[in-house]
Amino acid sequence: MANQRRFTDMLADSMPKLVLAPSFLIVMVCIYGYILWTVALSFTKSRMLPQWKFVGFDQYTKLVNNDRWAVSSENLVVFGGLFIIICLVIGIGMAILLDQKIRQEGLLRTIYLYPMAISFIVTGTAWKWLLNPSMGIEKIVREWGFEDFTFDWLVNSEMVVFCLVIAAVWQSSGFVMALFLAGLRGVDSEMIKAAQLDGASMPTIYRRIILPSLKPVFFSAFVILSHIAIKSFDLVTALTGGGPGYSSDLPANFMYAHAFTRSQMGLGAASGVMMLGGVLAILIPYLYSELRGKKQ
Amino acid sequence: MIKTKAAIAGLALAVSAVVANAGEVEVLHYWTSGGEAKSVAVLKDLLTEEGHSWKDFAVAGGAGEAAMTVLKSRAVSGNPPAAAQMKGLDIQEWADLGFLANLDGVATKAGWDKLLPKVVSDIMKFEGKYVAVPVNVHRVNWLWANPAAFAKAGVKIPTTWQEMIAVGPKLKAAGIIPLAHGGQAWQDATLFEAIALGMGGSEFYNKAFVAHDDATLRSAKMVDIFKTFKATRDLIDADSPGRDWNIATSMVINGTAAMQIMGDWAKGEFTAAGKVPGTDFICAPAPQTEHQYTFNIDSFAMFGLDSKDSKVAQDSLARLIMEPKFQEAFNLNKGSIPVRQGMNETPFDSCAKASMASFSSTAKTGDLVPSFAHGMATTSSALGAISDVITNFYNSDQSADEVVVKLANAVKASM
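The joint structure predicted for all components is written out below.
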């Protein structure tokens, strides 16, 4: 009897570990294991298949000297920066407006949030049609009588990266709005009333009291949006196909092309590692501040 | 009861005796669209007639990109298919890694060396031994023209690149887009390749894009070629970026555009629209390349197998692919021409006949050159590097003097 009880106790104690073990193992191997594998590959001269001939930093030198890589990383900075800033501004703006105890808030919230439910492939394809000069916005405006109207960003290699921003913002700003709306609902109404009694105007209350108290929401939104930006692949594939030329390429597209279709696995792995570096550069300060906050 | 059992056993024995030499071939291919699927079915029927079984392994998508990804994972895990559709220098890369089977037994018996032009058989061989079988030949340097559009503008179909650029304004004045083009990297490369071959000649072409000679890549002639290439930009409408090739072809079919530079797979679009070659549309060699031929050949690479029965079936497959019966049926469906020389020309249309005549004659003069834009001349990494430079040049305001330096450097870096 006593033995059996001890066994069940032991089982109950180790149950969480047992249940978590498979997923822990899978995550370790399939995520962290393959990250290490990719890092190792980036130091080899692998072409079509992995080859374990180490060449040091050769692939990284090639990468830095590659024009297409330069264009795609530049695009990522422009696209990522604009995407995050515009999404935050629009998201916060809509959240504040929706927070004014308006009628039909539930319906409006759903409408704004809904683009998030579609994949970037659909968003990209729909915006490709809208932005195409001969069948989209430009054509309609011209038919309205504004003959000189031009909106040809999609086929202009200087401006095409802004098309990516437009489509991505359309898709993701509703999500940012939902995050901030949840945050706004959590703000103590007593505090706002107190400020009102002190004679503060609504804009000042938002600027000085409410938004500063939403700092954690800012952080989460920023981290999620920067992830979306760095791993954007499907949007480019559907909206521009990387073109005109390769002027709208992002690093993820570069990585895919070289690792899988051009038999340059080493170079592809090196670009993957660079992307990981980008993600870590954002993530580590975030984790650091989070963990430090917990200790206090 | 016992009788039936015995009968079944006897039947089973009899069946097993018949199939003793029959094996199974698993064939990886990416011919999944209408006409292509029909073409593959021909091969499947011929193979099953000989008692072997065909295991279809079709992977659609991305002009074979998806199929190649699947093939890599299968090969690395030690379980490759018997045959895989593969092109150009990829064959050499796979053979170099030791994956491919030696087909010399079948090849010598059927005399492939005599049936194939040397430039073609060289691609199918690795270290002097056949490792792959060619299926068909596509001519890439075609000019597809809509004669009605030319009549409307009152101009002739151009035969040189200078003429081509000169007819542009007249066609535009008649409200016609002179050149239908899709702004995708491979289409840019296809157009560039035709200009390079026409203006540079076969020797120059081979030196630059097959041997990757540095001096040729940086030469003044190359600068001229890039200048002409940029000049064709004016012949194209502004909406071309990202357009698929068949959309561009349909612009020629319905007369909104006058011509297109594209391989002979474009013919399928014309015939599917009920157009007749010679009257509704013209297939002419791309300007200045009348006596030259850029080929794009589809082939099957045969993988090394363990099972003896499967090897027998694999050899049968290789033999059948090169036999006239399959070459004719397949290419009539696909719109390409047989790779086998000395075939009966009667069932083919006028464009295909012209292509066949030119294929044999250029094979003798040395003007039969591999299409680099379609992976026949270079490894996928060099092709990627070259097409990046070309497409970026075409879509930016880079000067021709700058781009030749970029080209030479990119080719060197990809080696």
